[in-house]
């Protein structure tokens, strides 16, 4: 099974300069090849990877473009392959340019035969890359398999290497707990709430970091574009944003591990996060931008990706259902009304009087929409019998405690 391993690089000044030159060459090739593809499409024609690779080889022999020879040939060819795939998947005119000030420098070495990886000791390892030589990296975990490719990228003031590794694992035919199923409701108060009333959440930025981030944003708005002071402020903002993003990634990985390990079926709402966080129109701009920030901060899509990745190792089946009315429907009697949800956290059915935490009620509806809910006296669709629950228990509203297992700052 293919998986990723990411490590921080410790480069010499010469190697760091070379990495910057390699990344600039890849950006130049991407933008030129994309412009050529768009021009062909305007004329009603098409160009793919093969002719562009031949033209790249010819262009490197031109005196004005001989600086492209600094970069290894196969990382430039890999850039053309990535562009070809992006154009086929998304359309030529929807693929974005790699602008200098909005693009994180990166390039990929696709051939494992041109790389050697060695472990120096428990703390450090090194990899031999074409035209870079031996590069040291901070070894935080073992590779655990054969390296297929290596991607070098720049983020928040540091260079990183990501290895694509074949770890030899296979997806199990049966889950360790085949009778377990769970529905997950993603929200803005709690990142994830399950149908068995587990609440997963944590703060990704401390109050001091939030104040510092806003102060840096205000300073950035007053600084002249292209100035040295603006560059330093941007670097501070990126380092801070990187720490917050790493915490979010750690949270989603832990949460996905616990949910996928304990359940054979995980049901999610089929949410289009990109569309939900699109920029608002002229009305309610402030409210919409606040909602967008809350959705992005909780990492809805990142949790979905983490669950899909972990499911490969546990044999968990990931099911998506239509999200309509899951938060307005009573899980006890099925009554649908917008008035059922009295507030963000309180759900009170206007028909039967059932009370519950609103997110937990929605998670149970999500599980029921996939055909896996428990009836009053019936069986689970996946083959497990249960006893009838006491009627009184459905009337007691659940008061969520602290989120399970995930430490707050």
Automatic annotation (TrEMBL):
One of its GO terms (molecular function) is endonuclease activity. This is RNA-guided endonuclease InsQ/TnpB family protein. Residues 300-366 form the Cas12f1-like TNB domain. Keywords: DNA recombination, DNA-binding, Endonuclease, Hydrolase, Metal-binding, Nuclease, Transposition, Zinc. The keyword Transmembrane does not apply. Residues 173-278 form the Probable transposase IS891/IS1136/IS1341 domain. It comes from the Bacteria. Residues 1-44 form the Transposase putative helix-turn-helix domain. In the C-terminal section; belongs to the transposase 35 family. The keyword Amino-acid biosynthesis does not apply. InterPro entries: Cas12f1-like_TNB, Recombinase/Transposase-rel, Transposase, Transposase_put_HTH.
């Amino acid at each position: 099974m293919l998986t990723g391993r990411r490590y921080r690089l410790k480069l010499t000044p010469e190697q760091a300069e070379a990495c910057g030159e390699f990344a600039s060459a890849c950006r130049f090739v991407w933008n030129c090849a994309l412009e050529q593809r768009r021009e062909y499409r305007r004329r009603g024609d098409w160009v793919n990877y093969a002719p562009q690779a031949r033209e790249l080889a010819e262009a490197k022999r031109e005196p004005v473009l001989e600086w492209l020879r600094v970069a290894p040939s196969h990382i430039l060819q890999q850039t053309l392959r990535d562009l070809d795939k992006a154009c086929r998947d998304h359309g030529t005119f929807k693929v974005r340019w790699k602008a200098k000030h909005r693009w994180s420098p990166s390039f990929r070495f696709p051939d494992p035969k041109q790389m050697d990886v060695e472990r120096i000791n428990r703390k450090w390892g090194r990899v031999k890359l074409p035209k870079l030589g031996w590069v040291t990296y901070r070894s935080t975990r073992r590779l655990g398999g054969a390296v297929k490719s290596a991607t070098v990228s720049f983020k928040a003031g540091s260079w990183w290497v990501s290895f694509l590794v074949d770890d030899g694992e296979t997806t199990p035919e049966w889950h360790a707990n085949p009778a377990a199923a769970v529905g997950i409701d993603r929200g803005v108060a709690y990142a994830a709430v399950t149908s068995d009333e587990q609440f997963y959440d944590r703060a990704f930025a401390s109050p001091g970091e939030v104040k510092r981030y806003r102060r840096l944003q205000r300073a950035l708005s007053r600084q002249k574009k292209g100035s040295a002071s603006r560059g330093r402020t941007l670097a501070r903002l990126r380092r801070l944003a990187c720490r917050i993003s790493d915490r979010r990634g750690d949270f989603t990985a832990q949460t996905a591990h616990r949910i996928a390990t304990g359940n054979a079926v995980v049901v999610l709402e089929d949410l289009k996060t990109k569309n939900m966080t699109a920029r608002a129109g002229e009305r309610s701009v402030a409210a919409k931008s606040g909602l967008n920030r809350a959705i992005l901060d909780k990492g809805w899509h990142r949790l979905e990706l983490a669950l899909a990745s972990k499911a490969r190792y546990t044999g968990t089946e990931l099911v998506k259902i239509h999200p309509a009315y899951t938060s307005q429907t009573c899980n006890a009697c099925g009554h649908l009304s917008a008035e059922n949800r009295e507030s963000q956290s309180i759900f009170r059915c206007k028909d039967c009087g059932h009370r519950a935490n609103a997110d937990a009620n929605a998670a149970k509806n999500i599980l029921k929409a996939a055909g896996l809910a428990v009836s009053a006296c019936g069986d689970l669709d996946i083959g497990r019998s249960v006893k009838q629950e006491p009627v009184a228990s459905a009337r007691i509203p659940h008061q969520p405690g602290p989120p399970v297992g995930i430490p707050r700052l």
